[in-house]
Design brief:
The relative contact order is 0.12. The chain is α/β, with parallel strands linked by helices. The protein is built from 8 helices and 13 strands. The chain has 2 domains: 2-120, Response regulator (Rossmann fold); 127-221, Winged helix-like DNA-binding domain superfamily/Winged helix DNA-binding domain (Arc Repressor Mutant, subunit A, Orthogonal Bundle), CATH 1.10.10. The protein has helices at 10-21, 33-42, 62-68, 84-92, 105-117, 153-164, 172-179, 190-203; strands at residues 2-6, 26-30, 47-51, 53-54, 57-58, 75-79, 97-100, 127-130, 133-136, 141-144, 147-149, 211-214, 218-221. Helix 6 (153-164) packs across helix 8 (190-203). The protein has a 5-stranded parallel beta sheet, with helices on both faces. The longest helix has 14 residues, at 190-203.
C-alpha cells in the first residue's frame, strides 16, 4: 500500500518513513503543501498522512482541495495541537482521523491500517482467504494451508493488493501505483520479476494455481 507523508521536518520525515516502511508500506514524502498537491495530482495513494503546520500554510487547507478533485484517499492529520476545537476543525475540513504529537508509532500504523480497511474494497476481517491461501494483514503473514510462506516486504505488498482485489484483474500500472514509489522505472521488468518470484513461492508444488497472468491485461489472484 502506498502512503504519502506530508512533513516538512527532514529528520522526522526520514524517521517516520523508515518506521512505517517496516510494516510493508511504500512511503513517499512531500515537504510542503505545493509538493503534496503535485504528488496527489499525479499519483494514487492508499492513505495520506498530513502534518498540520507546514511552511506554506496549514495542512488542513489542502484537504478541501483534494476532495474537490474527487480524490477520497483517507487522510490522517498529525498535529502538536490537541485542543478540542483544532480537532473538530480538522475533521470538518474532510480529514478522516487526527493524531496528536507525540504519538506511538504502533498507534500511527494501526490507524493507517484501519483507515485503509474502511475503503469499500477492504474486508473488515484482517484475514484474507483465497482458496487455501490465507493472508493475515495484521501480522503480515501468508500461509498456504498450514505452511507459512516467507515473503519479502515487496512480495507481501504485491500479494496483499492482489488478494484485496481477488478475482479482479489488476493491471501493471495499478500495481505500480499502489506498491512501488515513484522512483520505479516504468519500462523495467521489475513487476514481472516480482510476480514470477511470488508465483514460485505461492503456487509451486500445488495443483491449484492461484496467481495468474491475463495476457495483455494484468494479474489476478483467484481461488475459483
Amino acid at each position: 500500500m502506498r502512503i504519502l507523508l506530508v512533513e516538512d521536518d527532514v529528520v522526522i520525515a526520514k524517521n517516520l518513513k523508515a518506521l512505517i516502511s517496516k510494516s510493508s508500506f511504500v512511503v513517499e514524502i512531500a515537504s510542503n503543501l505545493g509538493e503534496a498537491d503535485a504528488k496527489i495530482e499525479t499519483n494514487q495513494y492508499d492513505c495520506i498522512v498530513l502534518d498540520r503546520r507546514l511552511p506554506d500554510g496549514e495542512g488542513v487547507e489542502l484537504i478541501p482541495k483534494i476532495r474537490a478533485k474527487g480524490i477520497y484517499s483517507p487522510i490522517l492529520v498529525l498535529t502538536s495541537r490537541n485542543q478540542h476545537q483544532d480537532i473538530v476543525e480538522g475533521l470538518n475540513s474532510g480529514a478522516d482521523d487526527y493524531l496528536s504529537k507525540p504519538f506511538n508509532i504502533e498507534e500511527l500504523i494501526a490507524r493507517i491500517r484501519a483507515l485503509i480497511r474502511r475503503g469499500e474494497r477492504i474486508p473488515e476481517s484482517p484475514v484474507l482467504s483465497i482458496g487455501d491461501l490465507t493472508l493475515d494483514t495484521n501480522l503480515r503473514l501468508a500461509k498456504r494451508g498450514e505452511i507459512r510462506i516467507a515473503l519479502s516486504p515487496r512480495e507481501y505488498s504485491i500479494l496483499e493488493y492482489l488478494c484485496i482485489n481477488q478475482c479482479k484483474v489488476v493491471n501493471r500500472m495499478e500495481l505500480i501505483e499502489h506498491v512501488w514509489d515513484e522512483s520505479l522505472d516504468l519500462f523495467s521488468n521489475t513487476v514481472d520479476v516480482h510476480i514470477r518470484y511470488l508465483r514460485k513461492k505461492i503456487d509451486e508444488g500445488y495443483h491449484k494455481k492461484l496467481i495468474r497472468t491475463v495476457r495483455g491485461k494484468g494479474y489476478v489472484v483467484c481461488g475459483k
